[in-house]
Design brief:
The chain is about 20% helix and about 45% strand. The chain has six helices and 15 strands. The chain has helices at about 1-25, 45, 85-100, 110-125, 235-255, 270-285; strands at about 55-60, 65, 100-105, 145-165, 170-190, 195-220, 220-230, 300-315, 320-330, 335-350, 355-370, 375-385, 390-405, 410-420, 435-450.
Length: about 450
């Protein structure tokens, strides 16, 4: 017994050491030298746009954080802003990368004018004349001014997690999504007309994975170990990506609306780019308002199949769980509501007493709570009948469950259903005043087809 106890303690120490070592070995220990800045997925896109015949001269006075929001803090207040304050510089870099715009200095125009005045004064003082030596080339003036900024930073747009613990050993994972929104508009300096406004958004993902071990190895000895890692998407890169997407959209929509007609070398260069942009915009129009998850709006029709386990709640004891299933068709009446018709088979059994099978037919109205999300709860209710060999029994049913849309057409479902009988003779025994009923749980697949549901 003592040997077993020692082996048990050694095994627990080994598990604890493994968890701790995994964390220690993943901790950065060496200093890293500075590197060039990372690029976003849209940086190559704006760099590879067809070059214009002439660049558009633009001025950017300010493109700032307009949210006024500070970083969230668990303890106390934080005076650090949630959004980087150098968004004008990020926009100017994106304009330069696109090769479509010739940006002129306007954010710190006072510094530029002061320096030019110093040059004039110095030349005048040391040239010995007041002629051409004091002249400077004229400043460029902008035909278009770019305005806008980061107008919102929404925290905890979507949060969630999963975890489990058994016998002192547990693990958990959590995630959080924030969201930034950028507006960019082009204004004509000649007329003041707003030529084009574009709007982009970007989610910011933070994840945390943790594991822990907690166990009493003796009456006064406790062993505990923790391991975890957290990753936060840099806000600066998220802001850069949103601004670069705004610049890309401004160029493409400007070409599409003939704002840059005089600047194009060949309009056909943008044919494929505009087609891809329109396709992306069509998908974006189906995106849910919070921007945290792509719209998963189901097509208007579906066929489905379930396998389920059923147990009768009747007058006999020793009810046995039996297997059954059903197949059916559903059609959406609105984005949330659909009508369903199905047929199936069910078996009622009490061990050693009664066993009978029958065909089922049901009509249900189902309410899908979040049709634009991949993951959505649902509830339903309806009426039906069971065709037993002796005679049919009528019933009502209600149920609910969860659906996860794996692709546009295929979804996995988990469900639970309660069948309420109208009579007390499902098990061929009438006793008491309570009608017979049944409980079932199951899993199945939905295959969607047809056009998307567009009704409200």
């Amino acid at each position: 017994m003592k040997t077993y106890h020692e082996i048990k303690q050694a095994s627990l120490c080994l598990v604890s050491f493994f968890l701790v070592s995994c964390t220690l070995f993943s901790i950065p220990t060496d200093r890293e030298k500075s590197t060039m800045g990372e690029i976003t997925p849209y940086t190559p896109e704006i760099r590879n746009l067809p070059a214009p015949k002439d660049k558009v001269v633009v001025g950017v006075y300010k493109f700032r954080d307009q949210t006024g929001q500070y970083k969230a803090a668990e303890n106390g207040a934080s005076w650090s802003t949630a959004v980087p304050q150098g968004t004008t510089t990020i926009l100017l870099k994106a304009l330069e990368d696109s090769r479509w715009f010739k940006a002129i200095e306007r954010e710190n125009i006072g510094n530029l004018l002061n320096e030019r005045q110093i040059i004039r004064s110095t030349r005048k003082e040391y040239s010995g004349s007041e002629g051409d030596a004091a002249l400077l080339p004229p400043l460029l003036f902008a035909g278009i001014i770019l305005e806008g900024g980061v107008i919102s930073y929404d925290t905890n747009v979507m949060t969630g997690g999963v975890g489990a613990r058994y016998f002192g050993l547990g693990a958990s994972a959590q995630y959080r999504q924030d969201r930034i929104t950028v507006y960019l508009r082009a204004v004509s300096t000649a007329t003041g007309e707003i030529l084009k406004t574009v709007y982009t958004s970007k989610t910011i993902l933070s994840t945390s994975v943790n594991g822990n071990f907690f166990r009493f190895i003796d009456t006064e000895r406790l062993m505990e170990s923790d391991i975890g890692i957290t990753q936060n998407e840099p806000v600066h890169l998220a802001v850069t990506e949103a601004i670069e997407k705004a610049v890309l959209s401004l160029i493409i929509e400007g070409v599409q609306d003939n704002l840059w007609a005089s600047k194009l070398k060949d309009p056909n260069d943008f044919t494929n780019i505009i087609a891809a942009y329109k396709s992306e915009k069509k998908i974006t129009n189906d995106r849910f308002a919070d921007g945290s998850a792509l719209s998963s709006q189901r097509p208007r029709s579906a066929i489905f199949g379930y396998a389920d386990a059923l147990q009768i709640k009747g007058d006999y004891t020793r009810a046995k769980t039996t297997l059954g299933g059903k197949i059916g068709y559903k059609h959406f009446l609105t984005n949330h509501l659909n009508a369903e018709l199905n047929v199936g088979v069910m078996t009622l059994e009490n061990t050693g007493i009664v066993s009978k099978s029958g065909l089922t037919s049901e009509f249900n109205l189902e309410y899908l709570m979040m049709p634009k999300y991949k993951f959505s709860p649902f509830v339903y209710a309806g009426a039906g009948m069971v065709l037993f060999p002796d005679n049919p029994r009528y019933k009502a049913q209600l149920g609910g469950g969860l659906e996860y849309l794996m692709s546009r057409n295929l979804a996995v479902r988990l469900m639970a259903q309660y069948d309420l009988g109208f009579t007390d003779d499902w098990d061929d025994l009438v006793r008491g005043s309570r009608k017979d009923h049944a409980v079932r749980v199951g899993a199945g697949l939905n295959f969607y087809f047809g056009n998307k549901n567009v009704k409200k």
